[in-house]
Amino acid sequence: MGKVYYISKNVGFGLLVLAGIALVTIIALSIAYDKEKAKNQGSGGDEGADGTGTPSPTTTPLTPEQPWDRYRLPGSLAPVFYDVTLWPRLTPDANGLYVFTGNSTVVFRCVKETDLIIIHSRQLNLTTFGGHHARLRGRGRAPAPSIQRSWFVAKTEYLVLQLSSSLAGGATYELYTEFRGELADDLEGFYRSEYSEDGVTKVVATSQMQATYARKTFPCFDEPAMKAVFNVILIHSRDTVALSNGMEIDSADAVIEGALVRVTTFEPTKRMSTYLLAFIVSYFVSIQSNHNNLLIRIWARKKAIDDRQGDYALNVTGPILQFFERYYNAAYPLSKSDQVALPDFDAGAMENWGLVTYRETALLYDPILSSTGNKERVITVISHELAHMWFGNLVTLRWWNDLWLNEGFASYVEYLGVDHGEPGWNMGDRFILYEVQKVFAVDALASSHPLSCREEEVNTPAEISEMFSTISYSKGAAVIKMLSEFLTEPVFARGLSSYLNTFAFNNTVYTDLWDHLQQAVENTPGMNIPDTVHNIMNRWTLQMGFPVVTLDTRTGTLTQQHFLLDPESVVDRASQFNYTWFVPIKWVKTGVEQQQHWLLHKSDTNVLMKATAAEWVVLNTNMSGYFRVNYDPSNWNRLLRVLSTNHKAISVINRAQIIDDAFNLARAKIIRSSTLALRTTKYLSNEREYTPWEAAIRNLDYYILMFDRTEVYGALQAYLKKQIQPLFEHFKNITDNWSKIPPGHTDQYNQINAIGLACNVGVEGCMDLIKRWYRQWMENPAHNPIAPNLKSTVYCRAIAFGGVEEWEFAWRMFKYSTLASEASRLREAMACTKIPWLLNRYLEYTLDPTKIRKQDATSTIQSVALNVVGMPLAWNFVRARWSYIFQQYGTGSFSISSLVTGVAKRLSTEFELQELKKFKEDNVHVGFGSATLALEQAIEKTRANIKWVAENKALVLQWLTDEST
Ligand SMILES: *[C@@H]1O[C@H](CO)[C@@H](O)[C@H](O)[C@H]1NC(C)=O
Ligand SMILES: *[C@@H]1O[C@H](CO)[C@@H](O)[C@H](O)[C@H]1NC(C)=O
Ligand SMILES: *[C@@H]1O[C@H](CO)[C@@H](O)[C@H](O)[C@H]1NC(C)=O
Ligand SMILES: *[C@@H]1O[C@H](CO)[C@@H](O)[C@H](O)[C@H]1NC(C)=O
Ligand SMILES: [Zn+2]
Q1: Which pLDDT tens digit goes with each residue over 210-269?
Q2: Could you say which ligand is closest to the alpha carbon of residue 507?
Q3: CATH code for the part of the protein at 2-283
Q4: So what CATH class is 547-651?
Q5: For the ERAP1-like C-terminal domain, which residue ranges apply (predicted)?
Q6: Is the CB of 184 within 6 Å of ligand 2?
Q7: Which of 264, 474, 532, 632 is the most buried (most CB within 10 A)?
Q8: Which of the ligands is closest to the CA of residue 228?
Q9: pLDDT at position 468
C-alpha cells in the first residue's frame, strides 16, 4: 500500500507545532501513501518469531498437530479461476444490519493428493448443502469425492472440508459456496463507508483486501502466491455505479429476489493475487481521459468532481503511467486505470490492480483551496501506487516476509515518477528528508531489525501487519536507491526490466531481482563492482542498522562501525557479517567530485582523502549511500568554516546531511558534545534553502521535546529567534509583504517553516500577522484570506494563542468543510489549543465516529500529544482507554503502533519511564497487537531520553545563553 503507513510520513514530524517549532506541516503531506506509510512513523516493524525479536501476540505453535492449525496453506491445491458474484446492500436489513450476499465458484487443480480442502474464510455465514458448507464437483472426467465433514477454524481463518477419499493429483475440481457477510464500517475486506452530500447520507460499499481480508469477502485461497483469474459480477441498485479490477463489459437490469437491480459483469482479470482485488458500489461520478488509448478515470463524490478536485490526478496519471512503461520497459498490462477517492480509508492508498483506492487527501487537489504540500502528496501517492502496477502486481513477492522489497521499491521509484510529472521540484532533496533521515532514526535503535526476514518468521495476520513498517518502506527505498546509484541507473533499469518480463503474472523471492541485476552487470562491459549484487546487498538486508563511516583526513583512514543512537544499548541480535557493510562512498574534496571508494572492511585507507589545512572533504555526496559520516575534528572545523563563509560550496543535500549527522553523532556520543551539533546551526542565519533548514528544525524538535518543560526553553527560543529572523524578513520581502506566493516549489515549504518558527519564538510582527488573518476569516467565513500553503501554520498558531472562540470557529469550519485536506488541517490545528478542557473534550471526540472519523482517531490523539499542554492529557487518555482503543484498532491495523510512538515521544523522566512500564504490565491481558514493537521502542527511547537530558541540559543551556546574548 501506500505508505500507509497510513498516516503519513509526516505525522511525526509535522505535528510538533505547538511547542515550538512547527514546521513541517507541510509535510505532512508527505507521503503517506499506502498503508504504507501510514503506519509508519517511528514504529519499526516486522519482528519474527525467531526468539530474538519481540514475541508476537499470537504464538505460532512450533509443531502444529493438524494442517488447519498452521497459518500457511498446505499448497496441495492451486486455484485457476474464480467466478465471484457479490451483492452489497446499501440500506440496512430488517435487523438494522448492513450486509452483502454472494456466491463463488473456485476452480482449482489438485497439485498433491489430499483428502482435505483448506480454504480461507472469515466472518462469513455460509449456506449449507446437504449439511456441508460448500459443494464440490469434479471437472472433466474427474469424479469428486463426497464431503464428510466441514468446519471453521477461527484462529487460522479457515473453512476445512474433510473428504471421503483423496482428490486426484493433476485433476481439476470446482468448489461452490454461498455466503452472507456484514458490510461493516471496519475498513477491512468488503466494508461500508458513509458521507453526506446535500444533507443526505450516502453509503458506499468498498474494499481493502491487503493483507488478509479477501477471505472476509468470499472463501478463497488468500495468499499472494495463489494467483488466479477472477470473473466478477456485482449486483447493485440501478442508481449506483459498480467498479472492479477489470473493465465493465456488460450491465443489465434484472429482478433478483424480488428486487429490480442492475447486474454489472467485468472482464476477466489477469492472473493476480487476492490481496489486489477491489469491489466498489457507489454514487460516485468520474472524469476521464484517453492517454495513448488507455482509459483513465478518476472517481469521487459528485461535489468533489464538480469542484474540479480530480483534475490534477487526471492530468498526472497518464504521463506517470507512460513514464513507468518506459522505465520498466513493459506495457501497462490492463485495459483501464481507475482511481477512486474514498471518504473512509485506513491506509493512505491501496494499489488494487486497475482500481486504486485512496484517501481523499491523497487523490483530490483543489486548484484554489489546496496547498503545494497537498499537491505534492497527491502526485507522490499516485506515483507510488502506479509503480506497484508492475512491481508488486504484475510480479508479486511470494510471501509477506519480502514486503520490504515491494514497498521499498515503490517508495524509491515514486520519486522518479514525480520528477517526471513535475520537473523542477527537486524531489531528490525530499527523498533525503522523508525517507533516509526519517528511517535513520528508527534503524539506529538496538531494537531495530533487518529488512529481510525468513518466510517462516511471518505467519499470523498480526505478524503480516507488522511488516508494514518504516523500515520496510523507507530503508527499503534507501538501500534500493543506493543500489541503483552504484550500478548506475541504466544498468539497474535493464536488470529490472528483465526481472519483470521474466516473472510477469507470477511470484518471486527477493533474490530473483538480485539475480537479474547481476546479469545486467555481467552484460555491461567495463562495469565493476567489488562483489556480486547478492553479496553486497546481503550486508544491507540481512543485518539491521547502518554504519557510521569515520574519515581521518590527517591519514586518509576510513573506519566503519554500527551506528547506535544510544551507545550503551545492547545489541542482542547477532549478525553473520559482524555489523560490517560493503559501503559505496562517493565523495568531494574542496568542491570537486572524486572517484568512488568502496569500504569493504572495518577499516581501510585512501590516501587521496588526506586533506591539508586549505582543503576539506565531504563523504557521501548527495547522500547517495545509506550511512552516516564523521570526521576528525580539524575537518569538522574546516567544514564549519566553509559553512559560515561560503556555504554554497557544499551542495544543499550535503549541508542538510552535515547538520543531521552532527546532531545524531552527538546523541550517539560519537562526537563528544552537543556543541559541535549546535555549531552547525550557526550559519543558518545565512541559509535560504529549505532542505538544510528542515533538517535543522527536525533535530531541534528533539531539543524542544526534551526541554519545553524546562528552563532551557527560554534560551532556546532566544537563539532561534536570532537565527530565523533573517529568513522571515527574506520571505516578507520576496512575497511583497506576504501578498505573493514564492515561485520555487521548495521555497514555498521554506516560507512555511520561516513563519511557523518565527511565530513560535516570538519574532516581531509574526503573531500579529497570523491573528489578523484568522480574525478576518472569522469575520467572513465564506472568504478565507489565508493562502493555502500557510493555512496549517496559521490555523494552529491562531488556535494556540487564541481562546474558545477561535477553537469553536475551527470546529464549525471542520464540520462544514467539503475538502478533505482542509478538514484535516483544521483537525490537526484544533489539537494546538493550550486550554486543557478543550483538549480533553477533543480527545473524547476521537471515540465518537460522528465527530471524528474512525480513520482519523489515532492521528488526532497523536496531534494532541505533540502539544506540550496536551501531552499528559493524551497519555492519560490512552492509558485509561487502552482496552477500548485496542479493540477498535488493535489487531490488523497499523495506526495503533504510531499512536504508541506518538504519545510516548516526550517522555524523558524516570517517573515517566516507570509509568510506561506500568502501562505495559497493566495491559498484558489486553495485549498490544501490532503496537508491540512500538511499545518496546518507546521504552528504549525513553531510557535514552533520560540519559540524554541528564548529560546535555547544563551544556546546552550554557551554549544557547552565550550565543543568544
Ligand atoms: C450466484 O448468485 C446470483 C445472484 O443471486 C445468481 O444469479 C447466480 O445464479 C448464482 N450463481 C450460481 C452458480 O448459483
Ligand atoms: C451470521 O450468523 C450469525 C449467527 O446466526 C448472526 O448472528 C449474524 O448476524 C449473521 N451475519 C450476517 C451478516 O447475516
Ligand atoms: C490540468 O491540465 C489542464 C490542461 O493542460 C490545465 O488547464 C489545468 O490547469 C490542469 N489542472 C490542474 C489542477 O493542474
Ligand atoms: C511461475 O514461475 C514458476 C517458477 O519459475 C514456473 O514453474 C511456473 O511455470 C510459472 N507460472 C506461470 C503461470 O508463468
Ligand atoms: Zn506501496
Answers
A1: 999 999 999 999 999 999 999 999 999 999 999 999 999 999 999 999 999 999 999 999
A2: 4
A3: 2.60.40.1730
A4: mainly beta
A5: 616-943
A6: no
A7: 474
A8: 4
A9: 86
